[in-house]
Every structure is written in C-alpha cells, then in structure tokens.
Design goal:
The protein has about 300 residues and is α/β, with parallel strands linked by helices. The chain has eight helices and eleven strands. Helix content is about 30%, strand content about 20%. Strand 9 (about 225-230), helix 7 (about 235-250) and strand 10 (about 260) form a beta-alpha-beta unit.
Length: about 300
C-alpha cells in the first residue's frame, strides 16, 4: 500500500519558488501551483456540531456534499462539541431540510456498545437520518484500544454492520485500531467483508496532527475510504492536492470517490465549540477548486 506525501503549501498569490521577501508574482499562471488531476469526493465531513450552533445552522446555505459529524460521548454530553439528545434531534431535522448528510462519531461507551455487538443505538440513529457511523475505538475517545482483539471485537462489529445494512460503518485506520481493520482487511481479501464497512485513514489518532501521507488500500475500488488529520481552512487545498496525486497513481482511479473529515480544524480555539465561520471557510475554499468534483453523498437509503 503506497502512500503519497502532501504537496507543499504555497502562500496565497505568491510563486511557491520565490525567495522569501520577494514581491508577489503578478502573473496568475505562475502565482499558484498547476491544477492536479481531478479528485472525486463523496463528501466533506465537518465534525463537532453541538448545542451552541444547532439554532444557527440553518441560517447558512450548505451544499449537499457537506456531511455534519455528531460526536456521541455520554460523559461529555452538553459540553462543547457533544450535543444533548434534544439538540441531536434538532440537528437531524435541520440536516434533512438542508439536504445534508449526517455521520455519528461514536466514542466511549457508545463505541463499546458496537464493539460488543449491540446494534440498538445505531438503529435509533438510522431512524433520525444518520447515514454513517464512525467507530472511534481510540484512547483519545475513551476506549481502551490496547484491549482490542481482532478475533473478538471485529466479529462483534461485523454482526452490527450486518444487522443495520443501510448504515455505513467507518473504521478508523491507524496504529491503535489495527486489530479491527486488519481483521476487516483479511476478510475483504477473501471477498467476505460486509459491503457497508469503510475505512478512514487518520494516523493522528484523532489528535488533529496534519495529514501528510495518503495511503491507498489494496484493490481500492472494492472499499470506500477517506482521510482525516488536522485539516482546516488554511490547508484543505494542499490536502486535497495530496489526495488527488495519490488517487491518480492508484489502480481503477476513475472509479474512486473518497471523503475528507475534520474536527479540530473547524473548532473555535477559545470556546472549544464548533465554529460555523471556519466550517464555511472550508466549504468556500473547496467550492473554489475547479479540479474537485462530487459524487453522490452518503444519504440514508
């Protein structure tokens, strides 16, 4: 599995090869890097919508390729980025009216329920309109990742995925979660994995470290996958350039549609809450990229 490094970020309006302190290049063809190959996105995930932003979310027009991520962690419910149940219902209603997708990011006990083979909460989420569920089985999300066992927890998660086949289950792919995704990959190699399981490459393990490499799985046209790690308005273009280069070198590239996801990059640095301003900045910068196209987003079936 090859990994392609991200393209270096160039200063806005400046030749990337210019010496420090040199005047900006007035030639627009030389002031920005050349366009990379076209990249096809399923969605752009903006994670951390919460009680504070729920009333204001509909005051902004969002494109249909935005996916709002909701964090579920019982012991933090009501704090910034962890909405209460009534806010989740409001957010779900708003997403339906706006035509945007929803993803549930399961942490702590909610994650452990899935790892123990319990589908009840996921079924509740499906009824609210959540199309995807991310299994955050890491220490940062209050899950004992050192205790993960591929021969125990993957079969349990597999049963849940099969019990709720119209929801997509996202496995974080990093060093902590290897027992889960390695068991999934072994099944996928045999053609036995559930079709509604996908992978998110997040080497930062949810700590917001900027992604610099973009691995592509074996037989990439047989699994859905995406990328996360420190993505924010200032670097979303360079991240997508790295993604475009990685996919361009991959087999079956014309059939590959990926997603990107971010949480810390759309968070207010003072309040720790979801920032509508940063989220809008991401959307505006992605919308301005002529070489980014969009596939059908992951809405409920």
């Amino acid at each position: 599995m090859a990994a392609v490094p991200a393209a270096p970020e160039a200063a806005e309006g400046r030749d990337a090869t210019a010496a420090p302190g040199a005047p900006a290049d007035s030639n627009p063809k030389r002031s920005r890097p050349a366009d990379p190959p076209t990249v096809l996105l399923r969605c752009v995930g903006l994670c951390g919508v919460d009680d504070a932003c729920a009333p204001e979310l509909e005051s902004v027009a969002w494109p249909s390729w935005v996916e709002f991520g909701v964090l579920f962690r019982a012991e933090k419910e009501g704090r910034p980025r962890f909405p209460r149940a009534d806010s989740v219902r409001r957010l779900a209603g708003a997403a339906r009216r706006m035509g945007c997708a929803l993803a549930a990011h399961l942490c702590s006990t909610r994650c452990e329920e899935v790892l123990h083979g319990k589908p009840d909460f996921v079924r509740e989420l499906r009824e609210l309109g959540f199309a995807r569920v991310q299994v955050n089985a890491t220490l940062a999300n209050n899950v004992d990742s050192a205790a993960l066992r591929g021969d125990v927890h993957w079969p349990n998660l597999r049963r849940v995925a099969l019990a709720v086949p119209d929801v997509e289950f996202i496995l974080q792919r990093n060093a902590e979660t290897e027992p889960l995704w390695a068991a999934f990959e072994a099944e996928r190699a045999r053609g036995e994995a559930p079709p509604n399981v996908s992978m998110l490459f997040d080497a930062s393990v949810g700590r917001g470290v900027t992604v610099t490499e973009f691995p592509v799985p074996a037989s990439p046209d047989t699994v859905r996958f995406g990328y996360a790690g420190g993505i924010r308005p200032e670097n979303v273009e360079s991240v997508l350039r790295g993604v475009a280069r990685a996919l361009d070198a991959a087999p079956a590239r014309d059939r590959l549609a990926v997603w990107i996801d971010m949480e810390s990059g759309v968070r207010d640095s003072e309040s720790d809450a979801f920032s509508l301003a940063k989220a809008r900045a991401v959307v505006e910068r992605v919308s301005a990229l002529s070489w980014v196209e969009f596939a059908a987003p992951p809405h409920p079936r």
